[in-house]
Specification:
The protein is mostly helical. It has nine helices and no strands.
């Protein structure tokens, strides 16, 4: 790894510690982080291709890392993520592209299968939906696999952008290497948070919203377990 890129700890991510630490991090200001998380995801999904998602995620992690350092957090700090607009955008686009590469050709396959089944039903024959649902199932499995892989290997990307000032490309590279070096812990944490989201969905979907702040708080704790705080410059000599 280049000397200019941050080093990381190996085998340092502990899922249960991340979960407990994430809750301890936000519990005193839970509703503040709930509002910031909801707004970040709402704005980030309002524009296609993740154009605003990257900056909003940078802003959210910026507040979480400030909270870890014991610094005050205010709602408007969420928008400081736009200071990292270019690098956040690059990181978000790289995550979106693999899904699009699956979805676009999949639509070209599934729509003809669907309309073929509809036409057969109009001729009096029972609609043969098996090919359509088979193709749909394959696409969903591929998207789930890619989403899981991205959640694991991109987990440190946005914190690296705001905490270490890395470019979008370098942040992805370092995140991939650090996640690989902490694969068991990172995968365990991602699966644990997915399980919590599923339980939230069972609670009339509303519960999934209340778990969201904990997701990002736990991931910010995992980031700090993998990456020690950046060294601070020494104070200037007395008299300056």
């Amino acid at each position: 790894m280049s000397a200019s890129l941050p080093v990381f700890n190996r085998g340092a991510v502990r899922p249960m510690e991340c979960l407990r630490g994430g809750w301890d991090l936000i519990k005193d200001q839970y509703w503040l982080f709930m509002g910031m998380t909801f707004l970040a995801l709402f704005i980030g999904s309002a524009v296609p291709m993740g154009i605003l998602l990257g900056p909003m995620m940078c802003g959210l992690y910026l507040t979480l890392l400030r909270r870890q350092r014991g610094e005050p957090v205010q709602f408007d700090m969420l928008f400081k993520g736009f200071d990292y607009f270019k690098d956040g955008l690059i990181a978000a686009l790289i995550q979106v592209v693999p899904v699009l590469l699956i979805l676009l050709p999949s639509y070209a396959i599934m729509f003809p299968l669907y309309f073929s089944a509809i036409r057969s039903s109009r001729r009096g024959a029972p609609p043969d939906m098996v090919p359509f649902f088979a193709a749909f199932s394959v696409v969903m499995l591929l998207i789930m696999f890619i989403s899981l892989a991205e959640a694991v290997f991109f987990i440190f990307t946005y914190p690296l952008i705001v905490d270490r000032g890395l470019s979008g490309i370098d942040a992805i590279k370092v995140s991939f290497r650090a996640a690989t070096a902490n694969l068991g812990g990172v995968l365990g944490l991602v699966l644990m948070m997915m399980a919590l989201s599923f339980l939230g969905v069972l609670a009339c979907y509303v519960g999934a919203l209340f778990v969201l702040p904990l997701h990002y708080a736990a991931w910010s704790i995992a980031y700090r377990q993998a990456f020690a705080p950046a060294p601070q410059p020494p104070p200037p000599p007395a008299g300056f």
